[in-house]
Amino acid sequence: MSLINLILLIMVGGVAAYFTTKLNKKSGAWITVIISLITLIVLYSYKDLSVVSGQNIFQFKITPYGWFFAMVMTLTYVGASFFNIYWMERLIYPASYNFLYLLSLAGTIGLFFSSNLLGIFVFWEIVVWGSMFIIPLGKSRKASVVYYTISTAGSFSMLFGIMFLYSKYNTFDTVAVLASVAKDPLLATGMFFLLVMAGLTKLGIFPFHIWLPLAHGNAPHTFSPVLSGGLVKMGAFIAFLTVAVLPSGKAFGSSLKILGVPYQNYILLILGAISIVVGTLMAIKQDDMKRLIAYSTVSNSGYILIGIALNDSIGMAGGLMHIFNHAMATSAMFLAAAVVAYRTGTTKMSKLGGMIHKMPVTFVVYLMAIISLAGIPPMGGFVSKWLIFQSLVKHGMVFIAMAAFFGSVGSFLYVFRPLSTVFLGQELPEHKDVKEAPMLMLIPMIAISALTQYFGIFPTVMLKYIGKIEKSVGMIPIKIDGLNIIANNGNLNATWMSVVFTFGFIIALIIFLVLPKSRKVGLMDTYTSAEFIHSPELYHYSSNYYAPFERLYEKHPKVEEFLFSIGTRVKDLGDMVSKIFFSFRPAVAVLWIVVIVSVIFMLGGRA
Fold first, then answer.
1. Are strands 484-487 and 490-492 parallel, antiparallel or unpaired?
2. CA nearest 316: which of 489, 495, 468, 208?
3. Which of 26, 33, 127, 428 has its CA 20 to 30 A from that of 204?
4. For the whole model, what pTM was predicted?
5. Contact of 355 with 362, CB cutoff 8 Å
6. Range list of β-strands (E), 392-467
7. Which keywords appear in this protein's UniProt record, sorted alphabetically (predicted)?
8. What pLDDT is attached to residue 264?
9. 150 class by beta-carbon count within 10 Å (0-12 exposed, 13-18 middle, 19+ buried)
10. Is the Cβ–Cβ distance between 385 and 303 less than 8 Å?
11. Bridge partners, 607 (sequence order)
12. Which of 433, 429, 428 is nearest to 350 (CA)?
């Protein structure tokens, strides 16, 4: 099946899902599942192809990097689509949701395989508009407005850059335009920042990060995994195009270099480091599970941007691999949150506890996801962060490396909070009848967790393909020797490391099973200061979880408040203009008639 036919199939499927949902909600949801699975299967068949199809702005080309991004994106869509089956009854407009869900999927496929800049912009807008109308189907219209505002800023930046390039080179062809730009360093710098700004807004990089907690936290539970795990990676794709395909290494060959990288790239490194720190500190403070994961996306987007901006074989490989690892881990976390919300009606950590007894499989899925996100072996997140650290050490970027290290340590703090408060601790009385998720919800969660672990144990399988991506854009591919990853400061054999971890776990399990156990004490079998405790909830510590740590930065300046204050001023200005220009009061109407007539007489007098 050609790319054009695949995109048309997805769009037609969206229309079919819309009308079918009007008749039967679950049948419409099944169409989204089937179309998503077909898309994944067809995309996988493109793995080793290099085909050009279509014409004009709808010309597509299968490239290694386009295929990689499309596969990551589609995996998140497939996983979330199974959840749609159970959430249709809870959505306000289920038919519209299914249509927009598949429309945004079609847009992402077109974006990643488009071979010209105008096509990239058109499909970018399709995704933005599709997702913008899905977000308010959750809990907040404000979240959709903020998302659209930030996305519009990026879209205008991209469009201005694209049209300027067309006016100069008279073509939208990506390769031809970027090759020409590379010969003009001054123009390349301007275009670099115009195009990359669109990527930064979608990637959620500081200071454009404010839409993530609002959109991800308030979007329908079934769409949050797609937003964070998938659509955010559109920004990484644009960043990859501007850094690697431009390529900045050639265009900025004569530019000022800081620690071996062009200053343009170093600015991205600084923004990535700030995003890691800001995302980590803000995630630690959250009480809502979904907002916490959203801020973790800000932090991990910083790692992705750093890997891409380093633009060497090791750093780029780490950044690209982290795109996959973060997509799978954060999708699993959001899906686990969706299960909790489906069964309990809330994602507030202070209102939950003891879910491990009711949802053991969901607990294991969440546990595997946070191990990867925290960068702990034997999960894939460890390998990608190790590669990024290796590249930072190679370049001697001490402060960027310190921010990255802080993010890794801090990530364990914030991902542990839901584990402790939602799944561990005491079970609340109102949740005594809660059950595990339905099987169709468990299947995608288990599959995503299995992928994360597989590529953590055998990372060279993915890194070999990433080496192919690097080679396709003129970079030296990352060195792989069997199961060994070759780096400047040492080699890594993640497979053997995983064997050691597994062996250690088995030994610890045997010791635990053999040694005598302590007596199991009931929740009410306790007292303090000679007074009996009659309410077990008092012992579930979930509110102000990291209060001593949070006090260190509780009075920090907030970018969100600053930007929202600007928004308020703009709204006030708009209200004033509306009253002056669009009021229907007689006095205002007479005023404008007098002004218009006066202008006509003045112009007539000059003539």
1. antiparallel
2. 468
3. 33
4. 0.86
5. yes
6. none
7. Cell membrane, Membrane, Oxidoreductase, Transmembrane, Transmembrane helix
8. 82
9. buried
10. yes
11. none
12. 428
